[in-house]
Amino acid sequence: MASVNPINYGTPRRESDTQVMLEIDGRSVTVPEGTSVMRAAIESGIDVPKLCASDNVEPFGSCRLCLVEIEGKRGYPASCTTEVAEGMEVRTVSDKLNQLRRGVIELYLSDHPGASKVETGDVGDDELLRLARDLDVREVRYDKDGRNHQDAVIDDSNPYFDFDSSRCIVCSRCVRACDEVQGTFALTVDGRGFASMISAGTDSDDFLNSECVSCGACVQACPTEALVEKNVIEQGMPERSVTTTCAYCGVGCSFNAELKGDEVVRMVPAKEGKANHGHSCVKGRFAWGYTNHPDRITKPMVRDKITDPWREVSWDEAMSFAVERINGIRDKHGSTALGAITSSRCTNEETYLVQKMARAVFGTNNVDTCARVCHSPTGYGLNSTFGTSAGTQDFDSVEKSDVILVIGANPTDAHPVFASQMKKRLREGARLIVVDPRAIDLVRSPHVAAEHHLQLQPGTNVALVNALAHTVLAEGLENRAFVEQRCDVEEYDAWREFILREENSPEHTAQYTGVPADALREAARLYATGGNAAIYYGLGVTEHSQGSTMVMGMANIAMATGNIGRPGVGVNPLRGQNNVQGSCDMGSFPHELPGYRHISDQGVRDIYEAEWGVKLDDEPGLRIPNMIDAATGGTFKALYVQGEDILQSDPNIKHIAAGLAAMECVIIQDIFLNETASYAHVFLPGSTFLEKDGTFTNAERRINRVRKIRTAPGGYADWEVTQMLAQALGYPMNYGHPSEIMDEIARTTPTFRGVSFDKIDALGSVQWPCNDEHPEGTPVMHVDNFVRGKGKFMLTPFVPTDERANRRFPLLLTTGRILSQYNVGAQTRRTANRLWHAEDWLELHPSDAEVRGIKDGTLVAVASRMGETTLRAKVSERMTPGVVYTTFHFPETAANVITTEYSDWATECPEYKVTAVEVRPCNTLSEWQRRYMDTRDQMQRIEGNQSVRAPDTVAASVEEASDDDWEPAE
Amino acid sequence: MDDEKMVRQANQIAQYFSAYPEDRAKEGVRGHIRKFWEPRMRTQLINYAGAGGEGLHPLVLWAATQLQDEAGQPV
């Protein structure tokens, strides 16, 4: 069990080769040079009173409570701002210090509403009251009727926390947390002297309408409960905590779930978390209310036809129904008519079981995962060049980077906690290059600015990376020694000859990319010569018809410049979902067994055939889009989907719907009746991350524990449901606990050989490869050798996508995410995060808007060659002219009605980032949306229930709001 | 999948590997399809190539022939 109140050491840890010995209260203490006296004392077990000090922000020295006496020094220096010195003699306790501290406490209490609680001992999370209790300050001699702040109005605008300035002591911990930890600089101390108060932006701003991103760092930092979670106000202080892992993005933050009984009161990011170091974002810290949402489906359901209402049944009946259908289809059409989709939101152990179910029980390799539509090109590209399908670094590596190249990623929205770490390094002086069609926040935000923003045209990544490489080679900036020592030189020479062709020069590629040659050359020089250079990339790289080529292109320039194999460098995919790395590792792809080993390898099949007791098919199976195609073609009949919603997330929804409708048995295992479930015959209630044991693997290959807090309302964790189905199908699957599944993974997968729940519990987390060679894991890969031996340069010809703008569709649409919503929105739409983003909107440049008569809030139709949808416009100079942008968080918008089936040549990852469209003002929903609204309730109704869905955004807002009264929420 | 989509996807593979010298390009296309395409898809390609292979890149046509030989299927 984690501590509810972990030790706060007051000031950050310092690193130094020089150790300093001093004496504190007669005790000999040794710490690194640069450490504060406060930290040295607390590390040696001596408590020092403090209010303004916290070990995640730099010392400030304002509260005057941490005073100490130092032999030979005059006065009473603050221990937080005083560094240790050799031979220093410190006293933290004396009558005089006690007198001074009591005086300060009394002054604070004179303008604080909780003084009476000191007597009762009910001090909650208020460090001031705790200190008053500990220092026995029971009386306040000052006149309570004098000037004070006790009538201050509480700012309760934020849905998750309140700010009560009557409790505030203006210690600036919140301001410094916002600045130093989150890097948003939203808070400030407004006014002077008595009028000083914490302010979120301008006088007219409250927290909700300010620049605040609701990461909660200020709430966590506040020592007096002036900033406090609404849940704590309503439920009281938590009593215990359990350390677990966030179920949102691929950063994989560790959290202490703080509980009262079995109810979560709050999620507090764990200081020991090696991915997040005590920080969080609005989703992880606050947006977990979906776990208790009334939309949760808690009973199994079945129906004969998708036009029938759902019928709630027992687990036994649901399993019998599923088994009868699966066996019937297999008898008639064979195993190749069956398939499964694993979930990147579920644990490694659950994902492993679903692919095992497909291969060992269904008897087919038709298994795939959502990485198909996001980072499958990462797998292909990094495997081809480096030899393995994963990012090269740990997140902390960025602290050693001198140059950061962000390509096709928007970390402040999609990976916010890592973005804060990156911004901290940028504030320290690292230089930034951003490659993106949009001016993402990193391009210019407080105290961070990109030195180069290469605002390229969508679909031209490969032309751009080739031009970067061309500049490096043509100007002699490559690291020839690294190449000769670490890489296949023959492949390098072929690549060099290819890249130096005129077609790859910045001057030539500018016609495609729109990036001026001079700007591109400057950026290339900085990347090659600026010191440790690291690449971070996202779906703006992978979701293209040349996604895999681009990944190889980035790997090439990293190798050519020697930016691989040490901290501060590397090629790093920012993974989308919490366990998308893990789902790929666990053998979710139809051509690979766990550990990225091809299904045609007899030796690997031997391992699993012995372990599972079955003969395995040696042919690659169908990918998700292939399954849909085969379904419409009549040869694919049954699909078991765990925790994915392909009808919302995958491209060309109409085709997905047709494929699902053609199947005879669709089994959905989920926490909500999702969009795909409209086409399902069996629904099995799933479990959230709070309701299971297991592990998630984040974008840095870090395997973190997920710990069960309560039982799922349906009664079973997802791994238990899969096991139940396997048993019902006659397969002996009999795990007693997920740790036994991980033991099997370790037994059969070389890169996981050293992984076990016991080891993760002991170390906190572990990064694969974890084996005999690296028993405690591998933070940085390819240190001495690439996994494949010699690094392999791959040719990267630029092939323009077939999706082209023309007179009829003159704009290019890209899709992406926003901070407050997550993926298909199934979780975040069911939280108060809707306050920030209640619908998808279309961003477009003012010039594109003006010529079409569009202004902020105008309802617009977006039409592509595939379809049309209606949403509201947001005019934004973040866009480049000719490019428009939307998110895909809301099923009512159905952004994927517009997207095409064009896909990456190597992996079939869809080209979400390039769709030619036209935009026009309109005043009605699209035909598809109207039909969807009409049929959704029909397809999701449950016998005895009116509806499980609330009416939603766009449809409702069309009825209720005029164009004039609409304001886009930021 | 429909033939048009299959032809486009196969040709995309060929477009990538055509950056390499011919022998390596041929093997690249054949190997990629063999490694990643499910048997039904390969059969569809083989049959389509056997029926004339309209629109297929020459590297794909060559690969289809090789895949047919490996599978022992009539074109």
From TrEMBL, chain A:
Task: Spell out where the chain crosses the membrane.
Answer: none
- Which molecular-function annotation in GO is an example for this chain? molybdopterin cofactor binding
Q: Which cofactor does it need?
A: Mo-bis(molybdopterin guanine dinucleotide)
Instruction: List, alphabetically, the SMART domains matched.
Output: Molybdop_Fe4S4
Q: Which Gene3D superfamilies match?
A: 2.40.40.20, 3.10.20.740, 3.30.70.20, 3.40.50.740, ADC-like domains (2.20.25.90), Dimethylsulfoxide Reductase, domain 2 (3.40.228.10)
Give me the ranges of the annotated region Disordered: 943-970
- Give the Acidic residues compositional bias ranges: 960-970
Keyword set includes Protease? no
The domain of life is Bacteria
Alphabetically sorted, this entry's keywords are: 4Fe-4S, Iron, Iron-sulfur, Metal-binding, Molybdenum, Oxidoreductase, Repeat
Q: Where is the 4Fe-4S ferredoxin-type domain?
A: 159-190, 203-232
Q: Where would I find the 2Fe-2S ferredoxin-type domain in this sequence?
A: 18-96
GO CC, any one term: membrane
Q: Which residues belong to any copy of the 4Fe-4S Mo/W bis-MGD-type domain?
A: 239-295
Q: Which GO terms describe its biological process?
A: formate metabolic process; respiratory electron transport chain
Which protein family is it in? Answer: In the C-terminal section; belongs to the prokaryotic molybdopterin-containing oxidoreductase family.
Put simply, this protein is called Formate dehydrogenase subunit alpha
Record the organism.
Answer: Salinisphaera orenii MK-B5
TrEMBL record, chain B:
Instruction: Extract the InterPro entries matched here.
Output: Formate_DH_dsu
Instruction: Name its species.
Output: Salinisphaera orenii MK-B5
Protein name per its UniProtKB record: Formate dehydrogenase
Pfam short name (any one): FdsD
